[in-house]
Amino acid sequence: MMQRGVKYQSCINFGVLSGVIEKLPRFIPKERAYKIDRDEAIKRLEEHNKNGLISTVWYQPVPYINAICSCESPECGAFRLRQDFDLMIMSKAEYIINLDQDMCQGCKQCVAMCQFNAIRYIPSINRVIIDYNKCFGCGVCRHACKNDALNLIPRQEYPGFDGHY
Prior knowledge:
Elements: E1 11-13, H1 15-21, H2 38-50, E2 54-59, E3 65-71, H3 77-85, E4 95-99, H4 109-113, E5 119-122, E6 127-130, H5 140-144, E7 150-154
Antiparallel strand pairs: 1-3, 2-3, 4-7, 5-6
């Protein structure tokens, strides 16, 4: 809302933060704040991801999770601070994208979905390649792939990127 003027509920608040948010009507009017259960939260997060939004977990003090926000670049402050200024305010996911080159048909849909510029199309091979240094493991790109060439794997299983968060 603050960036585009579009009302879209993309943050899920937990516990103490929910009580604080209710007192800030300029951000979330009372008639728009309501409780959801675990299953509804998971459903919404999956929907946000399919719509190209990347989820970030907000916590304070550690290890208390107070919100999961789904944003996109350039609106998300955490993304901008990490990408533009190399401030480690946001960690990469514990997953990384895995590309099955045999399944890739070179449609480039995943390139358009990647907000971290981690996927590049190579015309000479009619396929994409992944820059694993840039991949945050959000998984948004896999929803764009109609050929199931992309899936998430635990980052620890990918040699050289197992501790690069």
